[in-house]
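Hi R.,

Here's the chain you asked about this morning:
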Amino acid sequence: MRYRLLFGIACLAVVAAPPTATAQGTAEPVLRQAQLDVTPAPQARTVTVTESITVDGIAAGTPIRHLVAAFPEVRLTGLRVSAGSAVVPTTTVTGTGADTISFPAPHAGPLSYVIAYTVEQRGGEQVPILVPDVPTDGSRAVRLRYHVPDGYHVQGEPFPVVIGSSGVQQRDLVGLPSFLAYRLGEHPSSGWGIASWVGVLIILLGVALSAVVMLRESRAGKR
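And the predicted structure, written out as tokens:
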């Protein structure tokens, strides 16, 4: 319960995923597909993240902005963005509750690029995800692949989507989540109790309120 309460409070500073192209009234630019590979190393308290993204309808040189939530005792290192064989330089702007990482599109869309980085968890449990400030097409275009290490099991408090206990867990999502939180243990989880469900409600409230933060950061960056 203590973990859930702290987690719910932290969610108040989380950015939400961008709306769909339909909601914005335009189909360009648009996130066509993305694959999110997440590989934790529990003993080192690090998580390796690789995002493979394809954006369509974007002009060469147009800045592609990504919002990434900031959490206490959680740090991103080794950020690398590549398009094909070329490494793309990035710019980081620190914001309130979220940072903005951007780079110019090396060519017109469809543009496929890969974002790779390591999350160091120095006490925090969250894994921030770089979310493109580009609307999705409303389909389940995002594939989440969570690689559970051998000898470990996902415990009973998953977020944002319930996954299995071991092996490579795969789920298709409508959009990129702004963060992940899967606790690992050496023994199978005993399941969910009342405290876990109360924690879920706290998290959902936090995510709903955090949309205000995301919209403020997004609109400020476009002025």
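The longest helix spans residues 194-222.

Let me know if you need anything else.
M.
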